[in-house]
Design goal:
Layout lengths: L1 E4 L2 H6 L16 E4 L3 E6 L2 E7 L11 E8 L5 E3 L2 E3 L6 E2 L3 E3 L5 E3 L8 H17 L4 E7 L6 H6 L3 E5 L3 E7 L13 E9 L5 E7 L14 E3 L6 H13 L3 E12 L7 E11 L11 E8 H5 L2 H5 L1 H14 L7 E6 L6 E6 L9 H5 L1
Parallel strand pairs: 10-11, 14-18
Antiparallel strand pairs: 1-2, 2-3, 3-4, 4-5, 5-8, 6-7, 9-10, 11-13, 12-13, 14-16, 15-19, 17-18, 20-21
GO molecular function: ADP-ribose diphosphatase activity; metal ion binding; NAD binding; NADH pyrophosphatase activity
InterPro entries: NUDIX_hydrolase-like_dom_sf, Nudix_hydrolase6-like, NUDIX_hydrolase_CS, NUDIX_hydrolase_dom, Pre-Nudix
Protein name: Nudix hydrolase 8
Amino acid sequence: MEKVLFDATFKAACPLRTCQREPLFGGRGSIRISSQSCYCRGRGSFTRFSCTAARTSKQDIELFGRTELLLGNDSSRINGTYSSALTGETYVLDAHDDEYEGVVIDPERLPSNAIAFASSIRLSLSYWKSKGRKGVWLKLPLDRSELVPIAVKEGFKYHHAEEEYVMLTYWIPNGPCLLPANASHSVGVGGFVINNKNEVLVVQEKHHSPSFAGVWKLPTGFINESEEIYAGATREVKEETGIDTEFIEVIAFRHAHRVAFQKSDLFFICMLRPLSTLIEVDDQEIQAAKWMPLTEFVEQPLIRGDNMFKQIIDICIARLRKRYCGLSTHQVISKFDGKSSSLYYNIVDGQDCNLGDMLE
C-alpha cells in the first residue's frame, strides 16, 4: 500500500472538499491506495472511495461509485450504506450515456437528502469531466423540488418544465453550450369540415376577445404531445362539436412568431370529411356550433376583412373544385432513427387534382 499526499486533481474530485482546498475538518490530508479502495484521511474524518483499479500516481486518481463517510470510529449504517448526519451518502449519480457523449441522470435513483445530493453532484461532475462527457441532463420530479436550488448553485441551468418535473442541464466543456434549446414552437390545428350539402361545420367559442363576439369560426385547438397533426385535427373537432371526421389533407399552414408565451406558432388547416351529422357541443369551451352554408360563412365581415382567413377559405374552395392539391399523410420509416413517421406530401393524379387546371 502506497501513501501519497493530496494534489489538485484529487481535491477537485473529492465531494467533501477537505484538506487544502476547502477544509471542512481542517488539516492536510493523505490518501492510501490499495487494489480495491482509496482511503482519504483529514483531521477528524475518514472517507473511503471505491476505485476502478489501483492508482499509485497522485496525478491520476480516478474516483467513482459509492463514497462512505465515517466520522472517527463512530459510524452508522443506514439501509445498507454508511452515512453521517453531516453529509449522508455520497456517490457518482446513477446515469446513462446518451448518443451525443452526454449523460442522463436517473431521476429515480437520486440521493435521499439534499446534503448528500450536493456532495454527489460535485463528485459526479468531476468524474464525468474526467471521462470527457459533455452535456448533463438532470430531471427533478415534483416531489424532489428541494434539489433545484442546489443544482443551480452547482452551475445547472433551467431547460424546461412540465407539470410533473423540471429539467436542468449542465455543459461541461469550455466554450458555447451545444445542447438543444427548449421547444421553440407550439402547434395548432383547424378543421375545415364540409358536408355534401356544401355546409361548413363552425363554432362560436365561449372565451374570446371582444372583437370575435358573434363570429362563427372553424374548430381549432392545440396538438397534444406525441400526437399526429391529422389525429389532433379530428380529435379537436370531435371534442368541440361531437362530429366524427376523417382526415383528407393539410390544406395550408401558417407560421407566426412571438405568439403564446413568446413562442413561435405553427397552425395547420386540415380538410376533414364528416362521418356523422349530429352536433353535441362541448359547453366548457364552445358556446354554439352548427352547419353553416359555405356562402354564408365566407360573407362574414371578419372573414372577408382578414387577409389570412380570406386566403385560407379561398384555398379550401379551390381544393373543393379540384384546382388545388393539399398534403396527404404517408407513413414512412427512416434509417436515421428507425422510427415510423408521417410524411406529408401531395400526389397529383387524374382523380384527385388536374395539374393542367392548377396551372391555368
